[in-house]
Amino acid sequence: MKNDLDMTLIPQHIAIILDGNGRWAKKRGLPRFVGHRRGAFNLRDISIECDKLGIKYLTVYCFSTENWKRPAPEVEFLMTQPIRYFKKYKDSLYKSNLRLKAIGRRDRLPKEFLNMINEVEENTKDHTGLTLTLCIDYGSYNEITTAVKKIAMECKEGSLNPFDITPDTITDHLFTSGYPKLDLLIRTSGEIRISNFLLWQLAYSELYFTDTYWPDFNKKELIKALIDYQKRDRRYGGLKK
Questions:
Q1: Choice among 67, 123, 196, 218 that is catalytic
Q2: What is the pTM of this model?
Q3: Is the pLDDT of residue 101 over 80?
């Protein structure tokens, strides 16, 4: 299948909604947290594959602003397991060339979790490989609202004229400021919706939905999604000559 992939048409920025961890576990008669754990290992594997393929940015939906509504034990696991995972593998991460970032609200995260994010961002900021962005306590409504507030303050302070506001102004005030345009969104597990994820960034992105649960979304599934992407006729509202 990889032979069918055009390496000259590799997207620079893809995003994935990591869906189906709980259902993957339930299907096997296992607790939901086992699915989340398997999903975390899969994120590591897919990130490595993306880096090898020359993808520059991978942005993943890990924990939404609405996920706090989930059962307390599951939320606690999601707020503590990454810390254990990070402590175990941080040496190999720092030796790699991957750059890690996190976007979303930070005021509601546990202190130890926030400290972990700050540490990994600081220690990988100069890496030049794949930029893996973890969207944690993230919601697009919150992101756009935050951007609007920043722009409003600049107008109030006189550093920005309201009549000079353009779509680029909004883009530059989002959490993903400085990122290349989003080429492809992948959602696993068979759900066909966006779920308040990167709404502004998705304006001209290609969408790919698969029934595969995230823990089973392997290299073969990734390449299948990329081949499908390369078959799309991306006209951005216009016509190709």
A1: 67
A2: 0.94
A3: yes
DSSP codes of every residue in 24-46:
HHHHTT--HHHHHHHHHHHHHHH
Token pair listed for 159: 């550093």
pLDDT recorded at residue 234: 72
Residue 241: predicted pLDDT: 61
Q: What percent of the chain has pLDDT over 70?
A: 96
Q: In the annotation, is 123 catalytic? A: no
Which segments of the chain does DSSP mark as H helices, in order?
21-27, 32-53, 72-95, 111-124, 140-157, 167-172, 219-230
Kindly name the residue from 6, 19, 42, 137 that is annotated as catalytic. Answer: 19
pLDDT at 240: 64
Q: Is 233 a catalytic residue?
A: no
Sign, CA torsion 93/95/96/102: positive
β-bridge mates for residue 131, sequence order: 57, 99
Mean pLDDT estimate for the chain? 95
- Per-residue pLDDT at 63: 96
DSSP letter string, 135-170: EEEE-HHHHHHHHHHHHHHHHHHTSS-GGG--HHHH
Q: Cβ atoms within 10 A of the Cβ of 199, count?
A: 14
**What is the Cα–Cα distance from 85 to 39, expressed in whole angstroms?**
12
